[in-house]
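Morning. Coffee machine broken again, so started the prediction first thing and wrote up yesterday's gels while waiting. Chain of 556 residues, entered below exactly as on the submission form.
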Amino acid sequence: MSIHPHAGKPVRPEDRINIGQLVSDYFLQIPNVDITSQQVSFGTSGHRGSAAKISFNEHHIVAICQAVAEYRASKNINGPLFLGKDTHALSEPAFASAISVLIANGVNVVIQNDSLSGRGFTPTPVISRLIISHNNEASVADGLIADGLIITPSHNPPSDGGIKYNPPHGGPAEGDITKRIEQRANDLIKAGLVDVKQTPYTQAIQSPLLSQQDFIEHYVSQLDQVIDMQAIAKAGVTLGVDPLGGSGIDYWPVIAQKYGLNIEIVNPVVDASFAFMCLDKDGKIRMDCSSPYAMAGLIAMKDDFDISVGNDPDFDRHGIVTKSGGLMNPNHYLAVAINYLFTSRDWPKSCKIGKTLVSSSLIDRVAKKINRPLSEVPVGFKWFVDGLCDSNYAFGGEESAGAAFIARDGSTWTTDKDGFIMALLAAEILATTGKDPHQHYLELVSELGQPCYGRVEAVASFEQKKVLTALSSSDVTADILAGEKINEILSHASGNNAAIGGIKVVTDNGWFAARPSGTEEIYKIYAESFIDEQHLQTIINEAQEIVSAAFKAAGL
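Came back before lunch.
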């Protein structure tokens, strides 16, 4: 994809959305679920869409919340449901819609203080932590199991909305759960919402079933269980924080005050148009904290702080900026974080390192170096949930800048991605070692090899995507990739034998993975080389040839 001429530059007036029109569309446009693009469709992070495209409207939200209420009842989940929202324009009306349905269904809903006054934003990891904390307490003995909903489209553009369900384990819902919710929600919409229970919003917010809690205090007060906050304070590390207008903006001042940290919020603005952003590589407003274009503002300030950090709107992703190297590639930081955590924490030797199959093989080399077990799983943080629940996994991370790890004592912290702790970990690394994460990365690659990583996309029809999803090792006839003998051709992840939904081909010094997009008419190729950029490009070219041959063999 070519770089847009305005990438990395401030948002222009013509880039801003019409929020009034967007919210009107949320309430007035009615989806037709016979049209695929207008159906409820749960990807790896819930249902996402835009009111303007009739893919995220009030019908979708009330149907999803009704489906969740029915699912809870069927599983005897009768404790509180923690409900959070981020700062996207559609999150506010969706939050109100969710309350009206959940209260009508007799659900005990708990929200952040001030949520009814237009503030009260709640990050994804906070909902996960609330669920885990509640379900660890004595109330569970009475059967009062908690779960949660987060209204967020993550880093997506301002015109988008999203909602995701976290069941009692606190992490992203598994596929069998989301399929059930998705199907029921679409059936409800198709039937004209006749089976959806709703209480008028003005009555719902007066219901004794709705309560408010200080989520900020609950989360922040426990952070020293997972991060050495005392070390950061003692070392006087200066932290520049750009919340990118996201849901964690009111958390950072409390973190600074409670633990005596030197934190400066460089951008305190909350604006649903996100007009303070720099445009992403394609010229769109996107709050992607792993993008050097979207993060251009914070990168320009890198010399003002020891460590600078950014997060996406629901704070489940992290962006780490150092004086010595600028914005770190997410793969590079994951490798550094893993090396540091597993050599500085007193965790059981049996605890695994979890990575997705498209994350860097530098992580594999780090795992071998420190002699810790590695588990490679398909794309999606849901594959780490069970392992983080029982601390079988001490760390789970994705190449898309999302990760979480267990507490310092080996207990579960969150079962969802946590951008706060990954950001604070960068400060801890500097505080305790005297070197920032980029400097640690340079030391790692001098010993283990320098990776070159790339990702490309290509148009693919529904039929072609279906072929790619069903590929097996026997469908790949090549035995050489970019001049090296192919060691493995995988259609199932080695860590849990779950289907990849594509293939991964591995050699001694490189690999590629090809898998279809779950939401777009494209397929993606991820690739890496430990030789050089030219070798990486050869891998990508040959990967495209292998995929094209598979399409041709299928008559496509």
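The chain has three domains: 17-218, 222-438, 452-553. Going to sketch it on the whiteboard this afternoon.
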